[in-house]
Amino acid sequence: MHRPVLLLIVAAAFAVGHGSAQTQEREGTVADRVKVGVYFESMCSDSIRFFKNQLYPVWQELRDIIDLEFIPFGKARATPTGTGDYEFQCQHGPVECYGNRVMSCAQNSLPIGTQVEFFQCMMTKPSPAFSGMECSEEVGIAWAPLQECAESVKGAAMLYTNGVRTASLRPWVNFIPTITINGIYDKRRLSVSLRALKSQICASYEGPPHQNCL
């Protein structure tokens, strides 16, 4: 889905994973794990397809060499209200904005493995943005804190921060989902990420040989 991402302010932040020396043959260390950033939105058909066909299957095989981070926002617009809150306009309407807020709250409160399961569940439901309660039950996490967060100024600020990060990418994002590999956003490589993520991660991994990359 092609359109420019618009936001008022831009910035960036990154996180790192962890490794285990005892399983060096299978697991990447902090230094050699492949950093994968997924910029997406909750009601986007291309994002849904990427989760189903690429991200989730690849995570099952290569999770121990991936430092994964989600940035839910997509092609939304965000405007500070001046009262500490924000107004959002999302590509697929207010419903998507709510789904993005739920996912932003989960992104900031759940371990990455739980995020993967929760987001995969949401993205494979008929109405992803409104599947938070159902998927929290399926994954085994509490829904009430996520709901409270999503409906609060705190949740709005989390989503706004994701918008800031999305707008900071260069070149400008015009397709969602957008994938970064080791912090690099390359439009020429994006098509590979969307159809052959596993081979791209294996090619970028510089640690000990991984059995699922052989």
Which consecutive residue ranges, at least 5 long each, have pLDDT under 50?
A: 2-27
| Main β-sheet, spatial strand arrangement | 2-1-5
Q: What multimeric state do the chains show?
A: single chain
The count of domains is 1
H-E string: EHEEEHHHHHEHH
CATH architecture field: 3-Layer(aba) Sandwich
Mean pLDDT rating: 88
Distance between the termini: 34 Å
Shape: globular
Protein name: Gamma-interferon-inducible lysosomal thiol reductase
GO molecular function: oxidoreductase activity, acting on a sulfur group of donors, disulfide as acceptor
Organism: Penaeus vannamei
Family: Belongs to the GILT family.
Could you walk me through the main structural features you see in this protein, from its secondary elements to its overall organization?
The protein is α+β, with helices and mostly antiparallel strands and 214 residues long. The protein is 43% helix and 12% strand. A three-stranded mixed sheet has the order 2-1-5. It has a two-stranded antiparallel sheet with strand order 3-4. Helix 3 (112-123) packs across helix 4 (132-139).
